[in-house]
Amino acid sequence: MQQSNWHFGELNASVSPCPTRMLARQLAQLCADGFIQKHILTTQPLVTTYHLTAEGMALKPIILAIAQWEGYSI
Predict the structure, then answer these.
(1) Residues 13, 36, 56, 30: is their CA dihedral positive or negative?
(2) Cβ–Cβ under 8 Å, residues 35 and 55
(3) Side by side, which strands form the sheet with 36-41?
(4) Which residues touch 31 (CB under 8 Å, ≥6 apart)?
(5) Which tens digit of pLDDT belongs to each residue from 1-48?
(6) 71/33 Cα distance (integer angstroms)
(7) How far apart are CA 40 and CA 43, in angstroms?
(8) Which of 12, 25, 40, 44 is most buried, judging by how many CB atoms fall within 10 Å of its CB?
């Protein structure tokens, strides 16, 4: 929530032990739902970044409240 852009590898490391394939599917669904946006930079190697859309940012207070209730700090 603090960063504006996340690389796939950073997301994968932060949600361990989530399998990479499952993370990719969830990110694709969040993109399809309009909560995040995916950018692929055509560098060598390819770099994929994700960021929250306006719809995703609107959910931030709810996500933070749930995280606090569960005892996590985001």
Answers:
(1) negative
(2) yes
(3) 6-7, 47-52, 36-41
(4) 37, 38, 50
(5) 566 789 988 888 888 788 999 999 999 999 999 999 999 988 888 889
(6) 27
(7) 9
(8) 12
